[in-house]
Specification:
It contains twelve helices and seven strands. The protein is of the alpha/beta class. The longest helix has 30 residues.
């Protein structure tokens, strides 16, 4: 005690603040370890016996179909290619023969989604859709400056990433509200959240920023009515779309396979988190980008990558 009395007050204050800082971040790390490694997954059947998945024929969407079937949920698969939908249906049912599967054909890039949404509403009538996975999403075929993006491309991005996701949720949500339970999962992107900008993919990044803010807002609107809305934020996953824009062909420590990503994603559903980064290495990347790398460096890095990809595409 005598030693403490002899120390200047500012040293004691700094020591106290340092301990608070250390305590806060120790708690954060322990919480992250618990959520990532120890927290049990929710029983998704408590929300309902059916799950609706958009774009379920490849990549993350297909992995969601298998994982939710493994969890015992019947499936409504919504996509534009009937043959691919049928192939996924056969593959899932060969592994999980007791699972019922409905197919709805909708082209989400259509300028008029009225008929497609009506078809979804007809298929979900009379069934308790408890989980909605808004997975559908598209990006540029290659990096481009904003003014050079073809109108058809950017209009399709807006229709698919924003309008379709909004309309499908509008169709499914009333049933959830009536039953006072449900989980809505919207697939966002690190392009709109983890980095401060995403040059040469600006419209895609902006569309995913909509998904993030909209998800967090309706999470607050409906959380007291039994509806859990969540924006899940993947970084790179080894999908066909990522291979086109980022030349990543194989999974790795920081680029999980769709199956590995979705196993983590499903464990995060229903815990009341408006936004999360399900895969553990993605959350580490986000942490370092947010706390340790200045925005101007991230901006320069993303622009450099975009220009490199644009030049590589033009040389083909």
């Amino acid at each position: 005690m005598d030693e403490l009395k002899t120390k200047p007050i500012w040293i004691l204050l700094l020591s106290f603040l340092g301990l608070l800082f250390l305590f806060k971040h120790t708690i954060s790390v322990l919480r992250w370890l618990f959520i990532t490694l120890l927290r049990p997954a929710k029983n998704l059947k408590k929300f309902g016996s059916w799950a609706l998945i958009t774009a379920p024929t490849e990549g993350i969407g297909k992995s969601f179909a298998f994982e939710l079937a493994r969890k015992g949920l019947n499936l409504i698969l919504v996509g534009r290619n009937i043959h691919k939908l049928q192939n996924v249906t056969r593959a899932v049912q060969s592994e999980y023969p007791n699972i019922q599967i409905k197919i709805v054909v909708v082209d989400f890039s259509s300028s008029d989604l009225t008929v497609g949404i009506r078809n979804i509403e007809e298929e979900i009538g009379g069934v308790d859709v408890g989980v909605l996975i808004n997975n559908v999403g598209i990006t540029y075929p290659s990096a481009k400056f904003f003014h050079a993006v073809d109108e058809e491309i950017w209009m399709n991005i807006i229709r698919v990433n924003i309008e379709a996701t909004t309309r499908v949720t509008m169709a499914v949500l009333p049933g959830m509200l009536k039953r006072k339970k449900g989980a809505v999962v919207n697939i966002g992107s690190g392009a709109s959240i983890v980095v401060p900008s995403h040059p040469l993919f600006a419209i895609y990044a902006a569309s995913k920023a909509y998904v993030d803010q909209w998800s967090r807002s309706i999470h607050v609107e409906y959380k007291d009515q039994g509806i859990d809305v969540q924006c899940q934020v993947p970084l790179y996953v080894a999908t066909k779309m990522v291979s086109k824009v980022a030349s990543i062909e194989k999974s790795s420590l920081f680029v999980p396979s769709p199956d590995a990503y979705v196993r983590s994603a499903v464990r995060r559903i229903g815990h009341g988190e408006p936004r999360c980064t399900p895969y553990w290495t993605h959350s580490i990347q986000w942490f370092f980008a947010y706390y340790f790398i200045p925005e101007f460096l991230l901006d320069a890095w993303r622009l450099s990558i975009g220009l490199h990809r644009m030049c590589a595409t033009e040389r083909l």
